[in-house]
Amino acid sequence: MRKAGAIFLLALVVVSVATLPWSLQWYNVQELDTAIRHPPSLAPAVAMARFRQTSEPSSVSSKLAYAATSWFGHDDLGRSVFYRLMPGFLLSLLVGLSAALMAVGIGVTWGAVAGLAGGRVDMALMRIVDVLYGLPYILMVILLKFAITRPLTAWFGGHTRIADLVVLLLAIGGVSWLTMARVIRGQVLSLKSQAFVDAARAAGARPTRILLRHLLPNLVGPTIVYATLAVPQAILQESFLSFLGLGVQAPTPSLGRLAADGVYAINTFVGYWWLIAFPCGTLVLTLLALNLIGDWLRDRFDPKTPYPSPVVGRGK
Amino acid sequence: MITRLLRRLITGAATIACVYTLTFVMVVSIPGNPFQTGERNMPPEAEQALRARYHMDNNWLYFWEFLLGAIRLDFGPTFTYNEWTCNQVIAASLPVSVIVGSLAIATALLLGIPLGVLSAIRKGKLTDHLGLILVVLCISIPTFVTGSLLLILFGVYLELAPIGGWGTLSHLPLPVITLSLPFVAYIARLTRMGMLDTLGSEFLRTAYAKGLPQRMVIWKHAFKPAFLPVLSYLGPATAQAVTGSFVVEKLFGIPGIGQHFVNAALNRDPGLMMSTVLVFATLLVAFNIVVDLLYSWVDPRIIEAV
Amino acid sequence: MFGRIVAGCLAVVAIELCVVGLRGRSDRADFTYVNPSGIHTLDPARMSWTQDFRVALNIWEGLTTWHPQTTEPIAGAALFPPEISADRLTYRFVLREDARWSNGDRVTSEDFIRGWRRGMEPGTAADYTFLFTDHIAGADAYVRWRRECVSALTTGGDIEAVFDGCAGEMEKRFARVGVRAEDDRTLVVSLTRPCPYFLDLTAFPSFLPCHPSVELLRERHRGTPINAQGLVVYDPQWTKPDYHRSGYPGLTTNGPYCLEEWTFKRRARLTANPHFRDVAKIACKTVDMLEYENVSASLLAYESGRVDLLTDLSVPYDHEIARLARSGERPDFHSCVLLATYFLNFNCTSPTVAGRDNPFVDARVRRAFTLALDRDQIVDKVRRRGDRAAKSFVPPRSIPAYEPPEGLAQNAAEARRLLVEAGFSNGRELPTVELLYVPNDERMCQAMARMWEEALGVRVELRSQESKTFAEEKARQRFMIARGNWYADYNDPTTFLNCLVTDNGNNDSGYTNPRYDELLASANNAEDSAARAALLRRAEAIVVEEDCPILPILHYTETVAIQPYVSGLHANPRLWFPFRHVSVQR
Fold first, then answer.
1. pLDDT at B240 exceeding the cut of 50
2. pTM score of the predicted model
3. Residue B15 and residue A127: Cβ atoms within 8 Å?
4. Within this chain, do residues B119 and B268 fall inside the same structural domain, yes or no?
5. Residues C227, C230, C234, CA angle at the centre, nearest 5°?
6. Which domains does chain C have, with CATH numbers?
7. Are the beta carbons of C229 and B53 separated by less than 8 Å?
8. In chain C, which residue's Cα lies nearest the Cα of B117?
9. Are B34 and B94 in a shared domain?
């Protein structure tokens, strides 16, 4: 089952990357006459001539790519959901993974140092976490966007899309580590008072050695749980920001944005189910796969988990 | 113990003061006219005059005035809602959010913990996988999707619940369930992780060796230390739940305080912004102190938490 | 341990269920309608949203009101029609004998002067002060003097002397404004120029009367009628029915209804004003205004019969609603053609925007972009709400005796030729163009950007900003193309055309053309309505066919839902629903 998760995710990533040359050109090709809100079909609902304007006309790969146009249907502006989902998936994955990375990198270090050092250092570090947690998020995002978008755009040579993406990554990753720090600190406090740490200290080990050799391996569990939970949280936060007008700039697709655009399909009047089913389905399956991979990682690296299952059948 | 508590209270007050100062700095540096409610452009003299009237043209003065007012629990006017004061807005919306939020956390605990423990016990089997799928569904489907689906299913087709609004018992279940789902996911995963850690421990073998039945071993002995990561998570989670969720409030039409956080920022309303931030910071500090106190109670070896 | 957690949780649940369950239920009103965005303000001088107008005009009554179906001005608190002088500059209103406030007091002409003055005072920060300064003689001078007083007080110097000077002079200065109470029941208004739509204006909320009890809540500095900053300011809570500070009796109004109860973000309840002259004919004695933030939820409530009128049906699947309304499948959905236009502003003045060259200072580029856009596709395929594609600023067939010019029809070849003429041999040579908008316009702007990219080969970058940042950028002219809309304030083309006059407060594009300004000025002094209409038409032709500082996209259409058992309400361009005419047979 775990292997199924990893294989699925890998397959999705491979397909997305493979279709990138076309999806980067075709994600915004609108067809207001024939393909608007077109349900999924095997035959493309958009004439090849439309795409001819944007990429090389005829090669075998292009013809193959063209065949997939209507598999997931078309959205409100006649754009292919398939060719918006693929780059959107990659973008969301990028956002989620960078948030998780920032959470792990900053959060674990922060929490471990706080827990291990104790006393005033612990108090100061945790109060900083409290203050950052208490600050109003939307206000910070607006201020961040206002303050650094124009300088960043200039720095990136006029590419506003990249600057917007960097601002978004900062905005989401910047708060993703707070809960991780708090949890890790709690774990370290609990571990610190256990026998093996005292034993190490008695044996004369230096604090860094204690940290690396003894504590870190025991932190693998909560780290992985939070990292795998941080990814969907980041993606959903991105969709919330897009909903308020603060996220990725249109027409760039992302899973959260596609879901937010398609949510009106859930009503009693009209039934454009493909607008919400495919983005949400991809989101669910991706996160399922990530969780399974996380589980596997934990089983491999967490010293506390013996193979096989710990509850031996006694006294049922 | 008392001295430690006092120290935490003092540092808590310092934290709130820090949050207030930083928020104030952000509020005055962000551009935007808080007085303009419609789409028409306001003449600059009108804006200047209003700023003078509310003492907003002098930042230092405004800082101290608002702080002194806040200590007296008088948060001043809000420009988003012309006829109401911040006090009235918060008094009307905070209780609603507290009710929905605390019910959501209670539900999340009652659902998430058994789910996590069960997944841990039956690790690798079907129950565990189903549990994982459930957890992923809870956290990966956006709240506005789950909420809309529940609203359509229970409100329209089955007609079991009213369609949004607030005031009676029947308005509670749908928003509470929608709000609790992400928390259920976190709590379940954290419990599972904690249980797996503890289930392999030495002291459990002693318990088994003593001949205790499995149920007692799990729930009485293994659970307590396994609960710690959940406890750490509960502090900020409760503060977050209790101050409402913008999406849930918008979807179900609940007059809670979550929307005011977002609207205050979007409208550049300084009074509402700072009063909601102060409320949130106070709740956060309070819940964190409670959680840290509970740390020592759950695991007596942790005396440093406080 | 877990047992204790369970016990704790269940205890919390039980307590809260009790708290919620023990609250009383309120009975249903005779008539219920929904206001999704809530009341922004009930202060008639400060309001600018249609939803607020709706409540205000039901609880207050101006000198005139609007007809429920045609929205023509009809009799209000004053006898109709008033006496108009031969030069059409003086109006003499005589108030009705039986015009009463909700506490029984007689409505006097002083009450109207008090209300109108609030609209002129800078302390009110009203959006519609220009309605007074443009039309009433002496109002402009008074408002300017007051603004000078206020800025003198905030810039330092001898504050005390300036303050005393302002406070002392105020009444003398106001006496020069052209509104005068001849006696308790007679109001004489002098205008700056003949105004064919003045009776339409007197029905507008800015011109509503104000009860004398409001004076109890005036901020006074050292006993003068102004506060320390020199502003005339009242406690903003004067519009609440249950506010009793300083002996204030609560909100007193003179319309068919009075405000009985107003809870924050929940509900406002109106009850029939017992002292209103036709109170016996009011069928619905209680009216509830509910706030449903989620429009889809309000529609579902309407479908289940809990709500009788829905004025806002902007659900995400609104095209389906519009289709049902048009096809007649749902006779309770009514399409109202509004006097409102959605358009794009071109930045006509700044040579560079954020470091990039702004090509729109050249009128040929503006015309090219206008010609390249297919507005029918946007209205029919993208928005699908039944709006009318717009080629002119003023909506056609809506203002009697005024037909706007034809405007520019789509012509992509001509557009490309114009670009060449302007010095860009193809679209790629143009600098990247930015389109600034708010999240609501997402779909339309994406479609428009794509249309320009395909027709002209130009690169268009989309910039979506939340509304306050958007307003800031627009005001500072940091845009190349920005979305805009305009809802008519009164039934005359000048409400639209004045926006493009040089230095007008709402002229976002920075357009300036002395010929245009001249035409509008001479229209103001025209002899008869036909000549006036011709001048206005010529002015509009300059704007929509030659210079194109704005690109009109569509004229709005709203769909409203009125339950079939409700009678007395009609679809109209102002979305004006007087509840005194409503009767409900469930």
1. yes
2. 0.88
3. yes
4. yes
5. 45
6. 39-247 (3.90.76.10), 257-336+559-584 (3.40.190.10), 337-558 (3.10.105.10)
7. yes
8. C2
9. no
